[in-house]
Amino acid sequence: MDTRPNIIINDTTLRDGEQTAGVAFTAEEKLAIARALSHAGVPELEVGIPAMGAEECEIIRAMADMRLPSRLIVWGRLCEADLDATLSCGVERVHLSIPVSDLQIARKLGRDRRWILDAISRLVRQVVDSGASVSLGGEDASRADVEFLLQVLDRAAEAGATRFRFADTLGILEPFGTYEIIKRLVQATDLEIEMHAHNDLGLATANTLAAVRAGASHINTTVNGLGERAGNAPLEESVMALRHACGIDTGIDTHQFPSVSHLVAAASGRPVAANKSIVGAAVFAHESGIHVDGLLKDKRNYQSFDPEEVGREHCIILGKHSGTAAVKHAYAELGIALDDFTAHLLLASVRQFSILGKRQPTGSDLQHLYTEATVLSGRIM
To answer: What is the pLDDT along the chain (381 residues), one digit of tens a residue?
Structure first.
């Protein structure tokens, strides 16, 4: 396992995650989420937007006062209006964002490329001179001209920034394109390169992995994939995919994922889908007879990684697609050993029960079905 310490998770649940339409965390919830993420070993947390006002600044200061082992980062626009607030919260690293696509430069700001480059030179230097470490964010970077992006990187480095965040703001990239553009940026600069992927096409995690393959040193995530529109690259998916698909261990305690996921789901009012990878309630549940039989013989038959890595365990469901192996297993857990004949009788009963009842049988249901089956078995014999 590669333990490359330069792959740093910068989780933005408390900033971009809270920008999910309809989501708003209380102060207590933000502090609890920050504590939980830090306890899990997430090295960097983007914790809020000081320019939102005094209440937001107070919460950020309270997080800073907790002296968490995670580095805290605040977010602002690269403009005079946001600088004072951004520097007032007692956080040493700030992220400053500015549009870099021609469309947003013209249609959102009413400016041109020269104005963007001049703003970077002037304002980034101003913040660096105040003693803060600066990450510059390229909003809508995935629609920007690459040659202009290289000019942005040069200006940022000259002004004293240490990191550039490549934002696929609209989630339009695919992994191959992501790899090519991130590789070009990495080769062109000494700045740290951070990937910020959105999930509009369902490719945020894949694009994040591609960026890492291309040399990105930092990635943005959110718990449960919260974020604008379709959300961001989920923390749990990114960490586990890096571990098992790329052989890179981020050092995060993945056993904490269920509790962190539940905490954020409750605070956001956004329940986690049952089939959500890693943290969904049903992702380690098995019903298919072929799968259950193979799983009971050797878990590696149908296990890409051990659920214990993320504080979970396999669950065998009895239903329409079950086989006799699952039936025997379920009754063995009730202390009842089934012969093959009775198991086949009960399999038919279990399948019928699940079709009519739209649920799996409980322990008492199984006892009742067993009683009926043994009576029927006696008649047949």
So the answer is: 544 447 999 999 999 999 999 999 999 999 999 999 999 999 999 999 999 999 999 999 999 999 999 999 999 999 999 999 999 998 989 999 999 999 999 999 999 999 999 999 999 999 999 999 999 999 999 999 999 999 999 999 999 999 999 999 999 999 999 999 999 999 999 999 999 999 999 999 999 999 999 999 999 999 999 999 999 999 999 999 999 999 999 999 999 999 999 999 999 999 999 999 999 999 998 888 888 888 888 888 888 999 999 999 988 888 899 889 989 998 999 999 999 999 998 989 999 999 999 999 999 999 999 998 887 666 554
Helix axes 204-214, 175-188, angle to 10 degrees: 30
CA angle 269, 274, 276 (to 5 degrees): 85
State the greatest distance between any 2 C-alpha atoms of the chain, in Å, as a whole number: 91
Spatial separation of the C-alpha atoms in residues 189 and 192, rounded to whole Å: 8
Cα–Cα distance measured from residue 42 to residue 199, given in angstroms and rounded to the nearest whole number: 21
Which of the 8 DSSP states describes residue 338? Answer: P
Q: What is the DSSP letter of 10?
A: E
Full DSSP string of 130-170: TT-EEEEEEETGGGS-HHHHHHHHHHHHHHT--EEEEEETT
Provide the CATH number for the domain formed by 8-268 in this structure: 3.20.20.70
- Helices of type H across 201-316: 204-214, 235-245, 257-268, 289-297
β-strand 163-168 against 285-286: which pairing, if any? unpaired
Domain map (residue ranges) of the chain: 8-268, 285-380
Question: What is the rounded CA–CA span in Å between residue 80 and residue 271?
Answer: 38
Question: What's the sign of the alpha-carbon dihedral 27, 16, 221, 119?
Answer: negative
User: Is residue 81 exposed (0-12), middle (13-18) or buried (19+ Cβ within 10 Å)?
Assistant: exposed
Distance linking the first and last C-alpha atoms of the chain:
58
DSSP-derived 3-state class of residue 59:
helix
